[in-house]
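Pilot study result, target chain (88 residues):
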Amino acid sequence: MGGARCLGRDHEIGSIEPGKVADLAVWRMDDLEHAGITDPVAALVLGSAPAVDRLLVGGRSVIAGGELRTADVESITRDLANAAEVLR
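Predicted structure:
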């Protein structure tokens, strides 16, 4: 809340509550790569990078269950492959 208050935006950001804009990322840490790591922050910073399981931007779901929900992944992949081919 302190940062939002300094910006004069604490009425719209800075905490998770109804009516506020939310950008949230959630990672699953119960996979094999992170087994036995008791500190989740250390696991995120020092361990292998897990895929985002859920991502909300402005309160809107972008990734759910590890899958991109706002764009066609196959189309993006094809476009990137084509762009990379052009650069070769």
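One observation from the pilot: The chain has a mean pLDDT of 88. A full batch analysis is planned for the follow-on phase.
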